[in-house]
Amino acid sequence: MFQQKVVTIGSLTAEQLRSTLPSTGSVTNSSRSPQTGPPFNRLPPDLYQLRITLDQRLIASVPASVSVDVLRESAEGQRAALARLLESRAKQEHPIGDRPTVVLTRGQDMTPGIAENHAGLARLSTNSRHGDRGSRARDPSLCAVSGDSGDSGRVHGRSATEPIAGAALICD
Prior knowledge:
Layout: H1 14-19, E1 26-28, H2 45-61, E2 65-67, H3 68-91, E3 101-105, H4 112-122, E4 128-132, H5 133-138, E5 154-155, E6 158-159, E7 167-170
Parallel strand pairs: 3-4, 3-7
Antiparallel strand pairs: 1-2, 5-6
């Protein structure tokens, strides 16, 4: 929110963003529990337990609080990157050309604005797919962006399950 309006971070100037952030002190980081259950529980049991252990380590590595300077620096980095993305989208229709691109969206608690932004990310490339995170499990061809070969379900001659050498934009 900026001046009681919902706006994208990338549309703000650095000064406007700073005006929305605390100016002194520290900011408490909220803790979370490791992510368990679907879709993670589809992993083999040993990998599922390893994933939980690694998630616990990641959570433990986050400090209880950070200085406002760290928060401001991080927020400005995100704002600048998103502003460049917005600018590139305005300059040309498909700024990354035909680079294989997959946009995965959480799919839960989606507002129309978020859905529109994620669809816009998919339009950055002429060679893209867009779906929610669970859709890859239901349809592995989501990650099969058509390539030079023209083969259905293949990317530049690779099968849908092989890694894509391109941009993968993961949205939440």
